[in-house]
Amino acid sequence: MKELGIGIIGTGFMGMAHAFAYRAAKATFPDGPAARLVAVADASTAAAEAARDQFGFARATDKWQSLITDPAIDVISITTPNHLHKEMALAAIAAGKHVHCEKPLAPTLADAITMMEAAEAKGVMTQVGYNYIKNPLLKLAREIIGQGEIGRITGFRGIHAEDYMHDPNTPWGWRLDPTGGPGVIADLGSHIIGMARFLIGPIVELVADIETVVSSRPVKAGSTERRAVETDDAARIIARFDNGATGTLEASWVATGRKMQLDFEVIGEKGSLAFTQERFNELQLYRAGGDSRTAGYTRIEAGPQHAPYRNFCVAPGHQLGFNDLKTIEIGEWLAGIASGTSPGPDFREAVEIQKVVDAAIRSSQDRRWKTVG
Amino acid sequence: MKELGIGIIGTGFMGMAHAFAYRAAKATFPDGPAARLVAVADASTAAAEAARDQFGFARATDKWQSLITDPAIDVISITTPNHLHKEMALAAIAAGKHVHCEKPLAPTLADAITMMEAAEAKGVMTQVGYNYIKNPLLKLAREIIGQGEIGRITGFRGIHAEDYMHDPNTPWGWRLDPTGGPGVIADLGSHIIGMARFLIGPIVELVADIETVVSSRPVKAGSTERRAVETDDAARIIARFDNGATGTLEASWVATGRKMQLDFEVIGEKGSLAFTQERFNELQLYRAGGDSRTAGYTRIEAGPQHAPYRNFCVAPGHQLGFNDLKTIEIGEWLAGIASGTSPGPDFREAVEIQKVVDAAIRSSQDRRWKTVG
Amino acid sequence: MKELGIGIIGTGFMGMAHAFAYRAAKATFPDGPAARLVAVADASTAAAEAARDQFGFARATDKWQSLITDPAIDVISITTPNHLHKEMALAAIAAGKHVHCEKPLAPTLADAITMMEAAEAKGVMTQVGYNYIKNPLLKLAREIIGQGEIGRITGFRGIHAEDYMHDPNTPWGWRLDPTGGPGVIADLGSHIIGMARFLIGPIVELVADIETVVSSRPVKAGSTERRAVETDDAARIIARFDNGATGTLEASWVATGRKMQLDFEVIGEKGSLAFTQERFNELQLYRAGGDSRTAGYTRIEAGPQHAPYRNFCVAPGHQLGFNDLKTIEIGEWLAGIASGTSPGPDFREAVEIQKVVDAAIRSSQDRRWKTVG
Amino acid sequence: MKELGIGIIGTGFMGMAHAFAYRAAKATFPDGPAARLVAVADASTAAAEAARDQFGFARATDKWQSLITDPAIDVISITTPNHLHKEMALAAIAAGKHVHCEKPLAPTLADAITMMEAAEAKGVMTQVGYNYIKNPLLKLAREIIGQGEIGRITGFRGIHAEDYMHDPNTPWGWRLDPTGGPGVIADLGSHIIGMARFLIGPIVELVADIETVVSSRPVKAGSTERRAVETDDAARIIARFDNGATGTLEASWVATGRKMQLDFEVIGEKGSLAFTQERFNELQLYRAGGDSRTAGYTRIEAGPQHAPYRNFCVAPGHQLGFNDLKTIEIGEWLAGIASGTSPGPDFREAVEIQKVVDAAIRSSQDRRWKTVG
Hints:
The structure is a homotetramer. By secondary structure, chain A is of the alpha/beta class. Chain A has 10 helices and 17 strands. Chain A has a 9-stranded mixed beta sheet with strand order 16-15-14-13-7-12-11-8-17. Chain A is globular and about 65 Å long. At the B-C interface, strand 16 of B face strand 16 of C. Strand 16 of chain B pairs antiparallel with strand 16 (297-301) of chain C, so a sheet runs across the interface.
């Protein structure tokens, strides 16, 4: 398998990021298969054609279904609004395509399970776009935890907060449409939930408070007419992990001033880790038990010793960017298809994340602790 | 009232801090009354005498009761372990002394209320040692919030975590004795609760998870015999404030690596604040709506424009230390006695804080949301 | 001019970075010409062929001269060790190719001038790889300075320090070969000199101290035989700028612990800027004269409002990486060829940088102030 | 020697800081002698009397000479403008008083030497107010360097920059009076020179550029009449140390935005240190040679393991303030008088610092390298 044919549905923020990453995959993961950009689809023909020219797809279309039936396409990336994921994914799976779908996987847990079961029944490979855990320093963090270097894990504190919806005059839009599922608990919350699972493991029970902070918004930009908001703007969770640790997880898209506050702290009996996506080429590590005179948090800077940083740069301290994280995700995904081993997170993992989202929503509605799943 | 006679009970960490601060009060708050160090009491005569010589008290004693009956003493500071606060405070109040008591005020809410009611009935003034909010930059933060400079407040995120109990081989001690009340939820949790109230206002309901992380400890240093721990090591709270904001509050004394993680973020519709006690001479402020090219968090450094910094130093950027915070607390307390107006936090405020602690414990036991008070 | 044929000489760190960037250019600068990867040359056939396969060049060769004579090639990137730049560049220029050459341009100022004059006489376009100034936030810094937002510029403080040569047992290598020119003053010093010129303008006189810190090194890895080092490891300069400002510039490759300390501060009468390449998606700005209560350095995070960040990501705070800086350099270079207007820095600018390097070396030898150029 | 009688001349910023510190000395250094505040002198009687009341001096006077002749005074602190230091110090020395004098010691090197020789001939003890090196973490830094923990020292980079004179409309004042000696090279430069000597050792030769950035200033606040400035606003030095290291040292009081940029980096072959007075309860340490996965700078937070932090607080992370640094200086000074061993820096050290200032001024005037001393 020297080359895989790629089709991408959607040309927004994530559609562009996927296209960039598929193009860059062979240049950064030379041992993996090349990606041939076969087709790009968008409801807007003009947008599809612009993306075709920009990234070098062989063809553009406003009919996503034409990608499903294209025998030259082996892999389909779905980057459309959430309420469209299920139909597209099921069609692609039925056609035997490997499917990469952006997060959150589906509006509801039931839909996500349907998608997972279809993929597993068909035997195609799947991937979901939890790109932040592709960071070489997140892999290091997981390794440090997994090897017991900071002892038994007792605490977790995580947040993903941004401010793109903080202004009450930011108009209503597709992110607020309940047919696409919940609001920030799915959009950003799923990132910090996935990161917590990646680092610490399964969450078994939780209590949550999920709220709509801005109760109405202009129906469109500049309008004085306002529409009630039904989805959530902020979510707070206290969670118990399967390994005995306890933690908090928060998500907000009304966190005025924050552009990328995807932060965590992991507390172990013998040490701890701290991280912020605002400076994602750094990881803070504390180890207990050394010389007390010089103890403290060590600021680790990403370098070629942290795979797969070296695929991008041979010199330390030069730093990866967001598109590089996406390229790692896609590079590993293509290599996984070639080898038959999923790099994760796949639909099964996305279902597990969605179970946490689902439990949080139920907990907030009932104002009680809930078991996950 | 040019001078007030001072008696201090206890010569531990806080006893020393009080003595230092009373001595420094006139030198930094010259318009207030001077403090005459009349007597210091400690169960250990040697400790009392050492403190007498170090700070210049007129006399030392191992009988705290002798301070109560000393007519030269106007003000008594109680800095002993928590389970002793109530008896001492009630005796001092009955004798008509003004009483400063270290936090947490009492092992139980009922005890705290008893102490508050006694003081109010007697008409003496009271103060509780929530020193961190005496920081000039905390006063600035409260002012920024109160004047609406960051708009309607929608979110709060606070934590007070340290690591002095993180090692499972740190032995059992008085902090773990349930007769003194709860564990970290009272010891550190009360600080972050008090800070949240200082900045945002009352908490009206909450859900909490409070746990003992280290289940047993050596009965004493070096011993192989272990004793079960009954008090809490970590606490996590989701809270609703009276003003409509929602937030999380956390406390831990097993946060390996953390020496002074007393941090908060306040989110408003038009801006936000971020602070860490690790760098308490700095406050981060974000204001929405300016030139987007140059928007961002501004790092405010404490200076003489932030009262009462100038009482300590006329030049900006020189920085206050922990003992200076304690000195502000004591300086304002003495000035308050002179003027008859409490600077706070007084016993009434401490009761309000204890109501939150109490509700959190009830919530954790019942695994349900609870109304505060 | 819809497409430009590209040839790259060299497949090391910079050869790979160029190949990545040419591939990514159209995907990020869609209005510019596409780059067709025609040929890659390396003295090692295996290396050339590996790069061909990794990046999708049409052909690979161990004869760089074959790129010069290839009519399908419009643009040649020279990424070989410094002592080879001149011969290659002159050949490419003579053949009418546009030439991108990595920094430092040449071992000596005389060579650099020869190269510049040849290119200008032939009328081809040139570019030199000072990638760090391609950062959107550096463009912002230059704009803030240029528009007078921080007033008359009075001071500059810059450094580029790394530690890849700090260990005395790091063996001798091509970077230390004096036939390639000076050591760190050229390798890293030229970056901070170029950055100072980009922000503040020409340097007119200077005094410098340039030294060899590690006097001998193993002749090769693991050898006990050592060879004297003739090139410099550290350089310190005090400089006077044409606009009246004064500053210091430093370079070191023996700065143990530093991976990317490319930092500057710019002082103006009405404000200042601070930057470190360690966190190159952030710029610190201070403006004098506002509300003293809330004055301080504002941490600006890169976002789509800072061109050309948006070419990579529509959302703020997601961050660019090193390869993105290189892609901006190449994207602007290709657009510049298409439009006939050099984006800079071109050979002429590289000559100006080299004049500063040259003056610094003369100053250090004579231990006197020197005029630049 | 249980108690020492103290006289302070001057009640400005430093006069207040001395008074505070003498009062606090016994409370923080209980093994040392107590300080009895005998008398305070100021040219303004009102200022002297206010200081008397604020700090508890026995008497106030507008005749500094009356302190010299007062037999109850053992120790005199001189905190007046620089041009007055010499006359006062010589009088105090002649009277057999121990003399603490604020920095810089004298307007000229010759004066400083005269003062040093007088004190040494008389056999009294001396101290100069280089308070920043009294920081427990500076003592740690010196120890780490001295014990070879970061190997042979090869580089130093230091600066002391503030902005209290940055505004061209800040009026002329005593700091600019050349009869008091040079400008910022003495006022702030002497701090970073002293710190470099404390950490690395003697400077043997240097080249410097010293300049007046703001050429004229209002004769007084609000005046439109301007007066030419004769003293320096900014100084830059390249220095060679006796131990073979090279470094830069800078000073500025026109560094817009900077309130306390007293920063250094020390580079060793096996590690490095970085520090800023803006966060002076932290020290950054890098050690080469460990596990490359987790290497990085460790942020050491001051705690009771770093003497004499424990004299102020038994718990780590609580932080010292500026007045605490001054208190350490005074506490050690009083203990030194009691023991007969100077803690330094004494007049002899101040003379060495002044030799560097003197050489820098000569270098800048002649535009040549100069030998120190």
